[in-house]
Known about the structure:
Keywords: Membrane, Transmembrane, Transmembrane helix. The chain crosses the membrane at residues 91-109. This protein is an all-alpha fold. The protein has two domains: 1-82, no CATH class; 89-125. The chain has five helices and no strands. The chain has helices at residues 10-23, 39-53, 57-74, 82-86, 93-124. The two termini are 33 Å apart. The model has no long low-confidence stretch (mean pLDDT 82).
Amino acid sequence: xxxxxxxxxxxxxxxxxxxxxxxxxxxxxxxxxxxxxxxxxxxxxxxxxxxxxxxxxxxxxxxxxxxxxxxxxxxxxxxxxxxxxxxxxxxxxxxxxxxxxxxxxxxxxxxxxxxxxxxxxxxxx
Length: 125
């Protein structure tokens, strides 16, 4: 049973911070620094926060498992961005537009999915 989060990079830290803010209602009073480059510190903050709001280890483990599953399906691993470091070409105007469009479409799809899920829950009630 995993009761601690292991964070590999800043993108994961940001995701966990935002996920906790969104899903743990009582966490609204907590301020997370999503730009803090100290990953080890961010990991400790995440784990302390989870211990505070989920003192029962099985409940915390379930929340962590759910959070990591959502992470794995919404945030691309860094290996998919390694080509940006290796590519000698500059992003052209078209490339920039393509990347921005891709980001915006991903956000739109995520929002639409959330609305569909919420609407489905409203119909069931």
